[in-house]
Amino acid sequence: MAGAPDKLPERFDLEKNERDSMTDRHQRSRSVHQAFLVGESLYFRPVELSDAASAAIWRPQPFPAPTEVIEEQLRQRLELDDPDDLHEQMLLIACRRDDDRPVGSVETTSVGWRFGELVPWIDPLASAVERASLVDEFVRILVPWMLDERHMMTVTFHDIGMRQSTNRTAIELGGRLAIRHREAHLLAGKRSDTVEYQFFNKQWIEQLGPPPAPEFGEVKRHVATPTQQRRTASGTDWPDDAVVMGKHLHLRVLETDRGDEQSSIEWAEEAFSTGDRLLNRHGYNHNRKKHADPDSAESVTLAVALNETDEMIGRIALTVISWVHQAAVIERGIFRPHHHNTGFEIEADHLLLEYAFDNLGMHVITSLVAEADSLSITSLTQQGYRRAGSIAWDLLCEEGFCSSLSFDLLAEEWRSARDTDGS
Amino acid sequence: MLQSSAVFLRLPLPADAKCSVVWDHCDLSESVERVEARIARWLKSANDPQDALLLVVCRRSNQRPVGSVRIRLDGARFARIEPVADPRLDADQRATIIAEAVSLVVRWLFEEYSLMTAAIHTAGWHPLIEEALSCWPGRRAYVLRQYLFVDGRYEDAHVWQVFDQAWIDRLGAPPWPDPGSRELLPVRRKVTPISTLSFRPPDAFAVGERVHLRPFRKGEGDLVARWSMEESEDFRPNGRSIHTAHNYEAFHSRQARVKPPAWLRFAVALNETGELIGCNGLDMISWVHRHATSEVEYFRAEHRSKGYGTESGTLIFDHGFKALGLNSITAFVSDRNERSIAASRKRGFRVAGYLAWRTFASGGLGGYHVLDLLRSDWLAEDSGDLEKPQPARE
To answer: The whole model's pTM is what?
Structure first.
């Protein structure tokens, strides 16, 4: 009679499999000797060229790319002159401790040794439950590291959607909801809010006192100055290069030959002359051109010109355009003080919104302004923007640390105000 | 030549860059310098009358541009004509300009180039355009629902096809085949994409029950090149494809560097072995109008008619609608490929029309069925909010 074999094939050895628990698997993990950025089931490590093969998991893009293209992009990113630069902006890959497989990533940014930003990305194939659990662990590992080891004054953590579990974790770690942009992200076919939680270093709260609380405006709100109905040209009454036209202003494409860049530089020199910064004309010109004419359609800049004289009085731009999520940020500068407070800011903004919503199909536009910039705050509020929170201790100002206030405006809200109130 | 009492058409000039808003087909406003460079490139390389042509439409009264016509000639036989008029004008003014311009262009192409047929792409339907094209035998070839985003809302795109009478006399009337019901069928997905980390190949973007979509891998070009020469079936109007390894790989790398991409291309691989069996993609993506055209190829006969196409189609359409936020996807299916028409209909595609005399094929001239699928139809199944099928608008 044959007896039991001395040794079972490994896959049938249930007892061994029982023993081969998660703890054992952790012992074999790459993270076993890692001293920090390790959590209960995850650990973070710097991105490597070999991660190109799993870019579908950690790269925040819904577009496929062959491995060699991702490797090329990673090389450009990693081959910096000074390794210390890596600390200012880092891409960390989140891996499971039990099998070392990536489940997402986080982009960390540190500004001036003071302000930290964490932008996570979770594997898009994760279920809602898996996603919630991963985000929770991301927060628990990363936020204390930024505050307690890197001694940031404050850290923001970006997330998609409002989940009670993440909210609870944030509160547990002393954080709070700072910014909420409605419907700014497309997740699994549905519009989701993008949110930012802000966390503060306890030492600095003790020293400076509690930071001001963020303010969120009502969704139903009065629009003091809605946009006017869209104007159409009737033959030859519009300048040839006007993209959109209002009562006093039009937005047109930029043209170096016409002195558009010169106007911007002169304005910048005037503005800079009153401050304590020096203007590098060449660099300024180069940067403006780069932003005005990007290769990747991530921003579009237009000149703000008077209808009467065609004089360029400012520049206005949609930046950080996300074509997938149909979201962008508005930036505007009216050059001379005598054009401020004349209603030109609001008219220019409405024209750009018309271009963004009706021509380009954007779904939501957001804006970030310094708390001290009362002119912009009034202008945005009158146009119908909603207060979408604030980032405290974001800027240095005469009073000490000041906040940046955020605003959002949905296309449907802008159209509704136009159709009900705009004459 | 190319002039009426109201407008005339001419080649673009560098000075036209200053008023690109009026005539440019580009969705995003670009600086004068950038458009100047584009015109120079266009004049240097692309403005070959045998290939592609851009003509600027100007008013005769003041010589000012009011629009343009882009013409693509295929085989000195077929023309695709895309007119645009100053978008700042109202719909009637735009239609007047387009009607004038396209009738000049069609007459020119038929009389001087002896083309057989031309397809004219217009946003929305307008009686002026229909009237202008009624000089030639023709018809509305297809209508793509919610295809263009204009003035803050989606409009249908109308494609008219006109034929030269001389060619009809020679060849007989072009066919208008009936591909079956044009009723809109509800989307019926047989496969639900898997959304969990418990099974996920590390480079997969979407996972189904038997196949997944992932990027094309280095080295797989050799396989595709070999398989293309081993192809046993001839079902394409223009015969079997021939691929070279380097070209096939370089193409995927090139597309991946474009931001935002205009062509998303995936490899279709078996879950069990990771083996490559085909490729599918979303081509001609417009991020403003949020539409794309689907394309697919399976490299070996053993993987056709096995349901892999249905499954990989489900994965890519789901990705297009849910991850990319597309509003519509169009498919062009050769009238020689009945198998593909039936499969597209099953997936919820609606027959939008037919483009005749588009290719040479066995038995003479061949055409393409045009089908479209809307995001709202696709997502209705997710929400369990399946509406009663509605008849197509045509």
So the answer is: 0.88
